[in-house]
Amino acid sequence: MTSAKSLVLLWHRCLGIFLAVSFAIALPGCSISQFQTKAADVPQIVESILSDINTFNYALNQSATNIFGLTFQGLIDTHGVTGEIIPALAESWQISDDKLKIVFTLREGLKWSDGEPLTTDDVVFTYNDIYLNPEIPTDSRDILRVGKSRALPTVRKIDQRRVEFSVPEPFAPFLRSTGLPILPAHVLKESVKTKDSEGNPTFLTMWGVDTDPEDIIVNGPYKLKLYRTSQRVVYDRNPYYWKKDEQGNQQPYIERVIWEIVESTDSSFLQFRSGGLDALGVSAQFYSLLKQEEKKGNFTIHIGGPTLSSSFISFNLNTGSRDGQPLVDPIKSRWFNTLEFRQAVAYAIDRQSMLNNLYRGLGAPQYSNLPVQSPYYLSPEKGLPVYDYNPEKAKKLLLKAGFNYNDEGELLDSQDNRVRFTLMTNAGNKLREAMGAQIKQDLSKIGIQVDFTPIAFN
Question: Is the backbone peptide bond immediately before 385 cis, with ω within 30 degrees of 0?
Fold first, then answer.
């Protein structure tokens, strides 16, 4: 895995406003003139995304490109720089001596974007009726599982501002899981109770992308204003958002956020250089060029240090089936579920060349799925196993696991099946496409054929 440094490039004309925002905004953006509004003079920032939104329903979302970072909050949040847990909808929490209960106290006077009160009834509804409800197919349920037993927590209301979470065993990471967005009971509760003709909750069809944005009730800093497929997403400031500065001024200071939907990171880059973007996440391939144009172009590049994310390969280890058919080809499934196979792939990828050639040195190898800011991160210096580039060691691991090579140097499994699989990423992300091309080349050196296929996400 690799971890990039955070590069944010801003126009001077919006720099003061942008830096005043106290929450993370998904980068980048596109042409202001394309969005006509009667309130054209409001403070706004225009960025870009690479794909369409696929749902306005958080519980059903499976896409990294989504509206929820701007529109919803949970009980707690994570500081974007330090990784520390910070208050969000909950102003405080108390953990019991036996580490089995957490009592959260909500902020006073919380409201939804339609002005309705936000209380612990919404918290209990969100967890008990949605996230913990087996009739709702949501990935959030797995996030809430506790320890080796994978048991689920229980949630109960104490009063209008206090709610209690109970876990079956002490589990330190659980507190971070309570950052899941809180959803509005007064809007969604009936849809959880009501069944369609097939016996499924009508909640499963709620808040699709064809929903009127005015009907999407939120608790975050922004509310959805407009969504046009393959064109743009527009957000307006939520007038009932809880956060204010020390002088009592409503936050966020920026009243409107616009995401233009573009086809590639190259398009974003060109839009920025032509003056159509207010902010851009700077990929390493453009850093040197933009750095030279910094003064002339009237913008500033800020290097924010390591991001909370990383680039990684994930093998499909699902051994389940549907309608009597395996979800993953059983032959490939045997490879993927073999530890030595995955370790060999890790040793075969030349991370340092990737950092030098693709990231231009603006990154660092990462051997953990946890960011370095996490209190649970274990560094290599303190014992974390690392997988430095070593193709010969990769080959030995494969031979040990029962694989073998033919006369052409192609890797075969114990049943003489050619080892070949498909690697996918999102089309339009030029950095990831370049990484995929290098991974394909690196794995070919240990006899594995990779069919690299960038696809349109969503």
Answer: no
Return the biggest CA–CA distance within the chain: 75
- Kindly give, in sequence order, each residue whose CB lies less than 8 Å from that of residue 296, ignoring residues fewer than 6 positions away: none
Note whether 118 and 88 are within 8 A (CB).
no
Q: What's the average model confidence in pLDDT over 250-271?
A: 93
Q: Confirm if 48 and 268 have CB atoms less than 8 A apart.
A: yes
What is the pTM (predicted TM-score) of this model? 0.76
Task: Name residue 87's beta-bridge partners.
Answer: 76
Q: Which residue has the higher pLDDT, 396 or 359?
A: 396
Distances (CA, A) of 295 to 10, 16, 124: 12, 17, 52
Q: How far apart are CA 300 and CA 16, in angstroms?
A: 12
Distance CA 294, CA 7 (A): 13
- Domains defined for the chain, CATH in brackets: 2-72+202-303 (3.40.190.10), 76-189 (3.90.76.10), 321-350+389-455 (3.10.105.10)
pLDDT tens, 11-61?
Answer: 433 322 232 222 233 333 333 444 444 445 789 999 999 889 999 999 999
Rg (CA), the chain: 24
Render pLDDT for 126-154 as a digit per residue (tens, 0 to 9). Answer: 999 999 999 999 999 999 999 989 999 99
